[in-house]
Predict the 3D structure of the following.
Amino acid sequence: MGTPIRVTVWNEFRHEKNKEHPASKVYPDGMHAAIAEHLQAQPDIQVRTATLDEPEHGLTDEVIAGTDVMTWWGHAAHAEVRDEIVEKVHQRVLEGMGLICLHSAHYSKIFKKLMGSSCSLKWREVGENERLWVVEPGHPIVQGLEKEYIDLEHTEMYGERFDIPMPDRLVFISWFAGGEVFRSGCCYQRGKGRIFYFRPGHETFPIFFNPEIRQVIANAVRWAAPQPSAAITWGNVKPLEDI
Ligand code: ZN
């Protein structure tokens, strides 16, 4: 096996630390611990975690430079993520780092910057049933799933319109018991970096312990890992041929 994919699992980690919040019961060690646990079990993946309240949000220059794929979960404190850190993560994506934005990361500074749109959506929190339909079978992100859909018994609803640019590839569409639909698995490329938005993951439901959701995230890490390619020359250049 070659060099492992170096993953940084980033989490806001605020709801889980609040003992009054249901997330502290579902994810006592934080959502990042649940996400990292499964990734760490993969022989081809090497994981570290980083959280908002660490110095530089845990995203020092060294960590960012040493990350092949970053996963991002944020919700209540998007505005507290410092712009200069967002700028560095953005630059790394353009250079080839993969980024997987989970659930309420649709409103994170980094996702909005990469999308260039409002990333607004409809939502409702009654714990209704969600069915994520695989609409791109054969895509590496759905490799190994045994059914045509993933069923989540209790979720927060996100509904269209989701104000994003048209995905390069749409892998999942969600149906909700209340009647809405949502583009739940969206692939993009920005510069040399691959981006995957994946909808499931509300903090009060044990979604990041669900084996199928975990499998999709691990698949997405492999899909988003940087692809080796030649260095790019920018700007004014001499001709390659005599002209
Ligand atoms: Zn949520």
